[in-house]
Design goal:
By secondary structure, this protein is α+β, with helices and mostly antiparallel strands. It has one domain: Cytochrome P450 (Cytochrome p450), CATH 1.10.630.10. The chain is 49% helix and 11% strand. It is built from 13 helices and eleven strands. It has a four-stranded mixed sheet with strand order 1-7-4-2, with helices on both faces. A three-stranded antiparallel sheet has the order 3-11-8. Helix 4 packs antiparallel against helix 5 and helix 7 packs across helix 9. The chain is globular. The termini are far apart.
Length: 383
């Protein structure tokens, strides 16, 4: 187990924790406790000034000109990948959205493109992701030494690091061209000589891919599941794709993230004794905030999918937490929203969505993600 834990299920308490003074609740320490095989020294596992510096170094990648430049790239990747989706027979969407979002992340984070290179990256990443389905309590297996999940994770990350080293080697020999990416920013942040160990760079890139492409792929799969069971909304969205302004699509994306947030918990570790919700909690208590519970407080009909719920208005940040909140809000939130809008628009424009099963898919736990248990099985027909 990860030790003493407290689950918060009300928007007021969640807001109090997520927007508390810096230093009272630590996200990096909490992430290390629930996923002990995470690499250390990354954005996910840092706290305080160290975290703020790393976040500041990477922030340009996810905002402003860099984000605008990604829109046509996302459309291009989506168009290419959707051509490969089977038509007229049931299939699982999630593996396809994983590859699609990995293509986008690989372009943004590593500056690489092409089926072969992304396929190789997917192989290394899939191997390295395997231990991350093991949550708190895995530290007890460390005694197994070379056979432990920790040792396996280190070996897998070494393979991933080897691939990153080859990319960096190409850049140092003058072969790297194109927009600034995460490797450039990490090297620049390391100092005037741009020196950063290959394993350190690789661990941060791995953490970015882990936090980014998997959750976005899951959110896409859930959105497809919801729209396949709401043909009227899907048809309305198809009509809307002909217009430049797409308010229903924007609302649908926000609502899908509300009803089916990919993250099982937002986690924090209490650094000092505190009173929360009328209870005295000791230092080191692990705080768990499940977005699925917080989101059910949305009115009206918090348990229902209402695609037009957010037409003309923004979600209340107290009851809409798919990207967390406060100073640790997901750095890639804007990119994720852009991916969801652009990919869903192309999908709905091309295909009618039909569910392959009679009943809505249940959620299954994969690491810290709540994924569709069967991967969102649908049947596509040309629109």
């Amino acid at each position: 187990m990860a030790g003493r834990a407290c689950v918060l299920a009300t928007p007021e308490l969640a807001h109090e924790v997520l927007h508390s003074p810096p230093g009272r609740y630590r996200a990096g320490a909490a992430n290390r406790r629930i996923l002990p095989v995470l690499p250390q020294g990354t954005l996910l596992t840092m706290d305080g000034a160290e975290h703020r510096a790393r976040r500041g170094a990477l922030a340009p990648l996810f905002h402003g000109d860099s984000l605008q430049a990604m829109a046509p790239i996302i459309r291009e990747i989506a168009a290419t990948e959707l051509e490969r989706w089977p038509v007229g027979r049931p299939f699982a969407v999630l593996p396809r959205t994983r590859f699609m979002t990995l293509c986008i992340a690989a372009r943004l984070v590593l500056g690489i493109e092409g089926q072969q290179l992304v396929g190789e990256l997917e192989r290394h990443l899939s191997d390295a992701l395997r231990p991350y389905s093991m949550l708190a309590g895995v530290h007890r297996l460390e005694r197994l030494g070379p056979a432990s999940p920790q040792a396996f994770a280190i070996r897998c990350r070494a393979g991933f690091a080897h691939g990153v080293a080859k990319v960096r080697g190409a850049r140092e020999s003058g072969q790297h061209e194109g927009p600034t990416d995460a490797v450039d920013l990490l090297c620049a942040a390391a100092g005037p000589d741009g020196r950063l160990d290959d394993p350190e760079v690789a661990d941060e890139l791995f953490a970015l891919l882990l936090a980014g492409h998997e959750t976005t792929a899951t959110a896409l799969a859930w959105a497809v599941e919801l729209l396949a069971r709401d043909p009227a909304t899907a048809a309305a969205l198809a009509d809307e794709t002909r217009a430049e302004d797409r308010p229903l699509l924007d609302s649908t994306v926000l609502e899908a993230l509300r009803l089916r947030p990919p993250l099982v918990d937002i986690v924090r570790e209490l650094t000092e004794p505190a009173r929360l919700g009328g209870h005295e909690l000791p230092a080191a208590t692990l705080i768990l905030i499940p977005p699925t519970l917080i989101h059910r407080h949305t009115q009206p009909a918090g348990e229902s999918f209402l695609a037009d719920r957010f037409l003309g208005r923004r979600p209340d940040p107290r009851t809409w937490l798919p990207f967390g909140g406060g100073e640790r809000r997901c750095l890639g939130a804007s990119l994720a929203l852009l991916e969801l809008r652009e990919i869903l628009a192309q999908l709905i424009k091309r295909f009618e969505l039909h569910p392959a099963g009679k009943h809505p898919e249940a959620a299954g736990l994969h690491g810290t993600a709540l994924i569709p248990a069967s991967g969102t099985r649908v049947l596509l027909r040309p629109r």
